[in-house]
Amino acid sequence: MIEERHVAMKKVVHQLKTTFNFPLEEAHALELFAREGDWQTIVYASHVKSLEVWEINPEYYDGLRRNLPDAEIKITDTWKEIKRTQKKYDLIVVDAPQATYGENNEHCEHFGLLPDIFRITNDGGVIILNVNIVPYGLNEQPLWRERREEYYKTHRPEKVAFDDVIRHYKRIFKENNVSMRWYLFQQRHTKFIYYFVMQMQRLNK
């Protein structure tokens, strides 16, 4: 099962290196919501120059240290840390929880992180988001459904078309004075969640 989890990220790494000639070996990488780092982070960790991981739950620290011995580990709230960090990265992977979460369900998936992610991404950097195309159990969680309707500006949050996803994120990029040089989708082992991989380029530099 663990190996199955790794397949999608292995494919992403291969495409970054071969199709897009992205200098992964020179990249300073950041993983948000890292948990124990064994689902995907462990796959690309050996391919990057440096790796920092953020995880809010201290119970995952030992697992992170075991799985990612060379990484800089921060036990921190990603939503707060991204506001205060002054560092910049070349590769940012966002494996946010699905549905709503937080003390008051104030967060939903990765929604709202992108403006801050742009700030801490170097020009030409790659951003990888989880995009849930057909969320499981959405109808049993009305707040999650409402948040997806609002974020994707759709009346069908239970199934978001790829073209709509692309238009949505390109609009966010444009609003923040950045462009999407290229993108790719890679289906994860869950089948309904895809890695949405994008290269960011600043406009009017």
Task: Give a structural overview.
The chain has 205 residues and is of the alpha/beta class. The protein contains 7 helices and 9 strands. The protein has helices at residues 2-18, 41-44, 61-67, 78-84, 114-119, 142-152, 162-175; strands at 28-32, 50-55, 72-75, 89-94, 100-101, 107-108, 121-132, 178-187, 193-202. A 7-stranded mixed β-sheet has the order 3-2-1-4-7-9-8, with helices on both faces. The longest helix is centred in the first third of the chain and has 17 residues, at 2-18. It is globular.
Summarize the structure.
With 205 residues, this protein is of the alpha/beta class. It has helices spanning 2-18, 41-44, 61-67, 78-84, 114-119, 142-152, 162-175; strands at residues 28-32, 50-55, 72-75, 89-94, 100-101, 107-108, 121-132, 178-187, 193-202.
Strand order of the largest sheet: 3-2-1-4-7-9-8
SS elements, strand count: 9
Distance separating the two termini: 45 Å
In which range does the helix fraction lie? 25-40%
Low-confidence stretches: none
Report mean pLDDT, rounded to a whole number: 95
Largest sheet: 7 strands, mixed
CATH architecture: 3-Layer(aba) Sandwich
